[in-house]
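thought: user wants a sequence for this fold. calling inverse folding tool.
action: design(structure=
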């Protein structure tokens, strides 16, 4: 049997740029940018917390928990919606500046469902989305195969309680949609936690996500994780899903990062697919904070692994 394997991949890349103060203001002490993650004891941040869910669809102050159930007002009165096939639901439409701090979603954990729901995110009035990805891959795992684990970017419970924790800044508007491109009705529960009043420069980095899949891949031909991008930016990392069709080892593929003028050969070059996610001598189901494998089914031929370049930026 010819050796080949199917590779489905999510690459997450965010722009990161530097903004300098004008020379005439150089003598003025700079007001520090709020850092609620690393400096949680700072109280005077100027940030205002908001949250959007079906219990408060606009995030407006004092507007949560008004719906009633048989348990009474504010007692799970509006927990979810049923999303029909070929229909789209707006998760949020937020005016900036602000930062999305956390997104939680849960729905049916069926693999075909988690691959047929598409999340699209538009920053600051864009015509085309910066993020367009199946919900499972966006939330950190390939093939729609739910496995409880957490990393620096994601956490996932055994019943598909899915979270992403990357900060997502915007200056004017954040518009997120949820589209059911499958054949069945599905439940949707979600919550988007964000702040407003953030002091972003106009050229702050916005989160971008690319989903790419080849079925099958081509032997001896490099698979492109992220096509060429120009301008200032930062590659944050990737979730990689492999479906291999026989029991042979599939992992002798180097990570190659071509940057700032590289042509035939890259500046950054690894050795082996498992080595890119900082494992060794084959694949082991070992999820860590910045790297690892969250799902490894050798019998059926499914692998989901990830690598986050947060302390080692690209």
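)
observation: tool returned 314 residues.
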């Amino acid at each position: 049997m010819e050796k080949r394997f199917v590779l489905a991949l999510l690459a997450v890349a965010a722009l990161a740029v530097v903004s300098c103060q004008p020379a005439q203001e150089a003598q003025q002490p700079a007001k520090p940018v709020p850092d609620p993650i690393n400096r949680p004891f700072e109280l005077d941040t100027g940030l205002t917390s908001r949250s959007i869910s079906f219990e408060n669809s606009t995030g407006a102050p004092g507007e949560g928990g008004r719906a009633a159930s048989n348990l009474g007002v504010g007692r799970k009165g509006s927990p979810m919606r049923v999303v029909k096939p070929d229909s789209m639901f707006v998760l949020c439409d937020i005016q900036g500046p602000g930062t999305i701090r956390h997104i939680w979603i849960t729905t049916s954990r069926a693999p075909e469902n988690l691959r047929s729901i598409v999340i699209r995110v538009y920053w600051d009035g864009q015509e085309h989305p910066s993020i367009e990805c199946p919900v499972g891959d966006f939330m950190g795992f390939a093939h729609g195969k739910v496995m409880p684990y957490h990393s620096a970017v994601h956490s996932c419970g055994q019943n598909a309680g899915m979270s992403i924790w990357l900060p997502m800044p915007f200056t004017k508007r954040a518009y997120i949609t949820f589209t059911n491109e499958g054949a069945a009705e599905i439940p949707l529960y979600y919550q988007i936690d964000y702040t407003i009043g953030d002091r972003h420069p106009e050229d702050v980095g916005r989160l971008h996500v690319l989903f790419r899949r080849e079925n099958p891949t081509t032997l001896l031909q490099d698979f492109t994780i992220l096509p060429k991008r120009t301008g200032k930016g930062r590659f944050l990392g990737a979730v990689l899903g492999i479906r291999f069709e026989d029991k042979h080892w599939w992992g002798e593929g180097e990570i190659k990062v071509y940057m700032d003028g590289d042509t035939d050969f890259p500046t950054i070059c690894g050795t082996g697919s498992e080595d890119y996610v900082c494992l060794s001598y084959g694949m082991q189901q070992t999820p860590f904070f910045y790297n690892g494998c969250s799902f490894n089914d050798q019998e059926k031929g499914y692998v989901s692994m990830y690598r986050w370049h947060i302390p080692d930026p690209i």
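thought: summarizing for user.
answer: Here is the designed sequence. Residues 1-26 have pLDDT under 50 and may be disordered.
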